[in-house]
Amino acid sequence: MLNKRKELIEKHPYSIWKGKEGLWHTYLPDTEKKRIHKRSSTRQGIEDIVADYWKEQMENPTVKDIYEQWITGKLSREEIFILNIIHEKNLTAKGYSNLRTLIYGIFKLAKKKKYIDFSITEVISDMEISRKAFRRNQQPDEALVFSEEETDQIIQYIISSQLDLINLGLLLAFKTGVRPGELAALQKEDLLDRSVDVHRTEIHYQNEDGENVYEVRDFPKTEAGIRTVLIPKQALWIVKEIKRQNPFGEYVFMKNGKRIRTYSFTWRLKSICQKLDIPVRSLNKIRKT
Asked: Would residue 149 be called left, alpha or beta, if left means φ above 0 and alpha means ψ between -120 and 50 degrees?
């Protein structure tokens, strides 16, 4: 503890001096006044003030403290944190977009609480980031979509098997291209006779206990996601069958009184692909197809 105290005092950026009046003096950093004057009747007293201050800063750093450590932690490329992370973590454009969302949230809150006085939005918008900086996922076309033959096989397999609500949901996805989360979040009033009104989505996260939570959010993934999707004439029978099987449920797809989650559709699609000896692809690949 004595060694730590000595280290904190040695790193103090301001001098410690004895004034003519016999008191010991120094300064401490301050966010508003830049520095504040401190005094004590003894050298040990003023050193205690310094050590206590820096000990508290180490244990309870502000966002600004972390930011300054963060921004000065440069690689040999001598570029700021965001560019370093793109380089270090080999980020894709989507990975960078997710990172940027976190950075915006953190630093906008920091500015609101007056921990910082700059706009993170302006900082990032002024950065010149080439598209070449991002890693590209090089996947063959056949891994990204279902072929026409595979699509026909899956649809025929579903139609010839038990047409429960999960299978009907997969058919609706193939015919409309709605996102998996949008499919699972559809409510009764969203499914019309000839169209689907999309304005909700399912979100998935882990709570404080590490448990998986699936909830419906009352807005879609993007602003453009609020839309009306037309249903082809040859697929209108799917809507009628869904309504026949679940005429009174709050959600379009329910089982035993509970909303069917996205993962149920995922598992069913995986099972069908395996039975048909088709490469397993995600629900999103239906939309991409």
From this structure: alpha
The residue behind tokens 């939570």 is 213
Q: In this structure, what token pair is assigned to residue 236? A: 């209108």
Give the global pTM.
0.57
In whole angstroms, give the CA distance from residue 289 to residue 285. 6
Q: Which two tokens stand for residue 119?
A: 């706009």
Alpha carbons within 13 A on the beta-carbon side of 278 = 23
Whole-angstrom distance, CA of residue 91 vs CA of residue 137: 10
Average pLDDT over residues 7-28: 90
CB 47 within 8 A of CB 38: no
DSSP SS3 for 247: coil
H-helix or E-strand spanning residue 104: helix 93-112
Amino acid at 56: E
Q: What share of the chain is helix, strand, coil (3-state, %, to 5)?
A: 50, 15, 35
How many CB atoms within 10 Å of residue 169? 26
Mean pLDDT of the chain: 87
**pLDDT at res. 121:** 84
Question: What's the count of helices (H) and strands (E) in the chain, helices before strands?
Answer: 13, 9
- Averaged over 39-68, what is the pLDDT? 83
Residue 74's CB: how many other CB atoms inside 10 A? 12
CA angle 141, 147, 148 (to 5 degrees): 150
Gap between the Cα atoms of 268 and 265, Å rounded: 5
Mean pLDDT of 255-271: 96
